[in-house]
Each structure stands twice: as structure tokens, then as C-alpha cells.
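RECORD TYPE: inverse folding
INPUT: C-alpha cells
STRUCTURE:
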């Protein structure tokens, strides 16, 4: 049963990452994308990239923090 929850958690992270990546790219502001996002999420991230990020707790936290900062700046 524990494995089911781990798989669900992992899949939710991958979906969230795809959504965050899409939103950052759709901001249509290269400074957000090229100055911070692209440094941690590869351009046109493939399944292997998403898998790596979804499994790495420290990287996941860094991406979430960066995403929040970008969205906060974009609203100014």
C-alpha cells in the first residue's frame, strides 16, 4: 500500500512540474525563463528530466521556491 502512495506522490510531482514549466514559459518574459528557470529545469524537459526532478527532494524544493519567486515577480 505504501508503494501506491509513493507512486501517486511521484506522478503528482511530475504533473505539477509540467504545469509550472508551462506557466513560466507562457509568461512571455525571457528574463524569468533564462535568468533562473532554465538553470534548474532543462529547456524542453523530457520524461527523463522530469523523472530525475520528481525523485530528488532537494531539487524539487528548490524548483518550487524558484517558481514561487518567479510568479511573485511576474505579478508586480
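DESIGNED SEQUENCE:
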Amino acid at each position: 500500500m505504501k508503494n501506491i502512495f509513493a507512486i501517486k506522490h511521484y506522478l503528482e510531482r511530475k504533473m505539477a512540474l509540467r504545469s509550472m514549466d508551462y506557466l513560466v514559459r507562457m509568461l512571455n518574459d525571457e528574463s524569468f525563463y533564462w535568468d533562473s528557470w532554465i538553470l534548474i529545469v532543462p529547456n524542453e524537459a523530457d520524461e527523463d528530466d522530469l523523472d530525475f526532478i520528481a525523485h530528488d527532494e532537494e531539487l524539487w524544493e528548490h524548483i518550487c521556491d524558484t517558481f514561487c519567486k518567479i510568479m511573485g515577480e511576474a505579478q508586480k
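NOTES: Residues 20 and 67 are 7 Å apart (CA to CA).
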